């Protein structure tokens, strides 16, 4: 397998891993609307700050989010605006393929 194909495979695998957890998915979906502080994300998503911290570390490791220092705090945002567009496209595709898959599922996941 060529280097480019391997890099592409690894990138999609990281993206899939990030989306495999409903909390991480909620974080990504929230950040597509703009940057947020961890404490606000924890409240919005309904998880502890410690749990959120672990998920943010995972998303940073996957290269999907970045921490931007703001004074003594860090604000999180998508590493690239195209990630938000990809999430919108992926969500649209999933719902187009099977519109009954996720009716009002919130963070429950599909199928």
Description:
By secondary structure, the chain is mainly α. It is built from five helices and two strands, in the order ααααββα. The chain has one domain (3-97): Orthogonal Bundle (Arc Repressor Mutant, subunit A). It has a two-stranded antiparallel sheet with strand order 1-2. Strand 1 (65-70) and strand 2 (73-78) form a beta hairpin. The chain is globular, with a radius of gyration of 15 Å.
Provide the fold topology:
Blueprint: H1 3-19, H2 22-31, H3 38-45, H4 49-61, E1 65-70, E2 73-78, H5 81-97
Antiparallel strand pairs: 1-2
Helix pairs in contact: 3-4
CATH class: Mainly Alpha
Find the count of extended strands (DSSP E, 2+ residues). 2
* Uncertain stretches of 5 or more adjacent residues: 106-111
The overall pLDDT average reads 89
* Rg measurement, Å: 15 Å
- CATH-level-2 architecture: Orthogonal Bundle
Gross morphology: globular
Instruction: Give the strand line-up of the largest sheet.
Output: 1-2
Search tags:
two-stranded antiparallel sheet; cadmium ion sensor activity; mainly alpha; lead ion binding; disordered C terminus; 11% strand; Metalloregulator ArsR/SmtB family transcription factor; 111 residues
What's this, in brief?
GO terms for molecular function: cadmium ion sensor activity; DNA binding; DNA-binding transcription factor activity; lead ion binding. The protein has 111 residues and is mainly α. Helix content is 59%, strand content 11%.
């Amino acid at each position: 397998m060529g280097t480019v194909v391997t890099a592409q495979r690894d990138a999609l695998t990281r993206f899939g891993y990030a989306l495999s957890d409903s909390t991480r998915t909620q974080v990504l979906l929230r950040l597509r609307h703009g940057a947020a502080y961890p404490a606000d994300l924890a409240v919005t998503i309904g998880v502890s700050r410690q749990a959120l911290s672990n998920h943010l570390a995972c998303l940073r490791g996957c290269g999907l989010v970045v921490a931007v220092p703001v004074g003594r705090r860090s604000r999180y945002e998508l590493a690239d605006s195209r990630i938000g567009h990809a999430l919108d496209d992926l969500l649209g595709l999933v719902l187009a393929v099977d519109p009954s898959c996720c009716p009002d599922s919130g963070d429950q996941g599909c199928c």
